[in-house]
Amino acid sequence: RKTLVAPEINISLDQSEGSILSDDFLDTPDDLDINVDDIETPDETDSLEFLGNGNELEWEAKNMPGDSADLFGDGGTEDGSAANGRLWRTVIIGEQEHRIDLQMIKPYMRVVTHGGYYGEGLNAIIVFAACYLPDSNLADYHYIMENLFLYVISSLELLVAEDYMIVYLNGATPRRRMPGLGWLKKCYQMIDRRLRKNLKALIIVHPSWFIRTVLAISRPFISVKFINKIQYVHSLEELEQLIPMEHVQIPDCVLQ
């Protein structure tokens, strides 16, 4: 071991040579001058970040398998802003921040639910029930679909951990509630690359002539790999042969 001897320092309050108050120590270059008035200080409304071992602590809430309705908590855990009597949810999709009007889409949140898991691991079953989509005759239809689109995409990112499949329930859906080609194209384009890659199957239950036509028209902007993942199922009995149905919630109108 080496013992380091500290140099003698004169801590007297005079400005003699070697004192910490001597002119040699008090002289500082101009670029180090600090104007206290220019320093930004946080006010009381600023949030504090707690760091542990240099890592930010992140909290994430997820629903259990089979939970339905609002995947974000029944619309009661908004991001703190309630303007014009509406509740808002802020989500990050593709590294961009978006706001969802939860109040407007609340009647349609059952359109996407978690249907449990299949195989080994966290292979999720995502159920999309088209019968819960809004009627195109509504005055705010485009606004509702825009927010519902963000809700569906952000729900996928929350619910999907590994591989997954989408079960699209097309039965009992009148044409006026069918999503348009532009809406489907936008959904496909905004799905993260990881989600596209991990999608193992898109099962369309009770396919109609219209949905087949829409998919045929969509071929130019959909990859061949994605097209090959599409399966048509004509009955719920046939669906039971493909996936476990314990947590898959089938709407009454589809059952009928």
Structure description:
The chain has 256 residues and is α/β, with parallel strands linked by helices. It has a domain at 88-254: Phosphatidylinositol Transfer Protein Sec14p. 25% of the residues lie in helices and 18% in strands. It contains nine helices and nine strands. It has helices at residues 23-26, 102-105, 141-159, 181-190, 193-198, 209-217, 224-227, 236-240, 252-255; strands at 51-52, 55-56, 88-93, 96-101, 112-117, 124-129, 164-169, 199-205, 230-233. The strands form three sheets. A five-stranded mixed beta sheet has the order 5-6-7-8-9. The protein has a two-stranded antiparallel sheet with strand order 1-2. Strands 3-4 form a two-stranded antiparallel ribbon. The model is unreliable at 19-32, 41-69 and 74-78 (pLDDT under 50).
What's the layout of helices and strands?
Elements: H1 23-26, E1 51-52, E2 55-56, E3 88-93, E4 96-101, H2 102-105, E5 112-117, E6 124-129, H3 141-159, E7 164-169, H4 181-190, H5 193-198, E8 199-205, H6 209-217, H7 224-227, E9 230-233, H8 236-240, H9 252-255
Parallel strand pairs: 6-7, 7-8, 8-9
Antiparallel strand pairs: 1-2, 3-4, 5-6
Helix pairs in contact: 3-4
